[in-house]
Amino acid sequence: MGKKDKGDREKKSKKRFYEEEDDEEEAVGSESQEAIPAAAGKQVDESSTKLDEYGAKDYRAQMLLKNDHSSRPLWVAPDGHIFLEAFSPVYKYAQDFLVAIAEPVCRPNHIHEYKLTAYSLYAAVSVGLQTSDIVEYLQKLSKTSVPDGIVDFCKTM
């Protein structure tokens, strides 16, 4: 009977040890939430987007094609989505830029989709990119005019 009692005590102590570790992890998680800036939760404004008769987003009124649109690889939507043509001659340069400023959403063979978020812009700034440079490169690479909401979103970071 003595050995059985001793084994029970060891199991209890191990359980208590694991419970203490869980408490420490929860405390660390709450501290990390406090370190996140309030602007990091900011989202791109999507309220001005109209839908067509099929339920698709219609950006034609907000985004006008540039005259030399065939030589540019990006579509920048007002909701923060950026579409990259993978068959463009400047695809590699545009992809390197987008990887630095946006999060990949979907990357099939011909069109890649990225999402511009507050976190991705913070990451871009942390590696040395300036928000004015980000806006300038988006304007150079975009087939359409870059929506004002995206420019404002980038500059507020």
From TrEMBL:
The keyword Chloroplast does not apply. Residues 19-28 have a biased composition (Acidic residues). GO terms for molecular function: 3'-5' DNA helicase activity; ATP binding; hydrolase activity. GO terms for biological process: transcription initiation at RNA polymerase II promoter. Residues 1-49 are annotated as: Disordered. One of its GO terms (cellular component) is nucleotide-excision repair factor 3 complex. Residues 1-11 have a biased composition (Basic and acidic residues). Keywords: ATP-binding, Helicase, Hydrolase, Nucleotide-binding. Residues 74-154 form the Helicase XPB/Ssl2 N-terminal domain. This is Helicase XPB/Ssl2 N-terminal domain-containing protein.
